Protein: ABC-type polar-amino-acid transporter
Organism: Streptomyces shenzhenensis
Amino acid sequence: MSRPEIRVRALHKSFGADEVLRGIDLEVGRGEVVCVIGPSGSGKSTLLRCVNLLEEPTRGQVFVGDAELTDPDVDIDAVRRRIGMVFQQFNLFPHLTVAENLTLPQRRVLRRDKAEAARVAARNLARVGLSEKADAYPAALSGGQQQRVAIARALAMGPEVMLFDEPTSALDPELVGDVLAVMRMLADEGMTMMVVTHEMTFAREVADRVVFMDGGVIVEDGTPDQVIGAPRHARTRHFLSRLLDPATAAVRKEPPDRVGHGD
Ligand SMILES: Nc1ncnc2c1ncn2[C@@H]1O[C@H](COP(=O)(O)OP(=O)(O)O)[C@@H](O)[C@H]1O
Ligand SMILES: [Mg+2]
């Protein structure tokens, strides 16, 4: 592996008495794509949120580049600027146009002037194929387009790593492909990425490594061919079989991760 861009060491996170992460060790090399898979409630989102300190770890260390995020003296805002995050729910500002959604954080956080923020916004909208939507409001866009705007907004901040938390789970199936295509492009360009996803085809084709989590620990960590193609652990096999067989998935006990789109 190249020099690790993300390093997680002996990471623990509890909510009250509930120990959600129980000792996570993980490295993501520069330019590497790591897909994180696992059942609902296994701690995938909490892990991502600890990597940009949206959650404060209870114990352990997180490094991004050469900065330790868990060092009490770290300039957390400076480090966080190097980390882009994309959520299942796109979190765009509904009262701002697409272009304004991209320029506002650049101006507020990076103090870019208007012209430069607009230039960077236009360049990143073009990267996700949405130049023609610059003046539209989010409500006028499909879910897939909104998610591509959210990715462009993160890219406009010039991040060194990108974290994706189930970026396609809220989308109608026919809109998933366009979002995955943008993520594939980023991977090809050498972006360092951690992607929580249930898209096994994407994981197989794009990930350098797949990490299977269950119960707050990493059960398996290897190439997609190893972890998805020839899982060594019964828990991994059980998870994958439920994912691939809707009949057994329908009777699973946990509530589904996926939110409906009938709101
Ligand atoms: N802010 C929170 N407060 C209390 N419990 C939480 C919080 N966030 C997550 N949890 C709990 O942590 C566990 C793991 O959640 P999460 O990381 O979201 O799992 P996953 O993303 O794998 O579905 C779940 O039991 C969840 O209820
Ligand atoms: Mg989650």
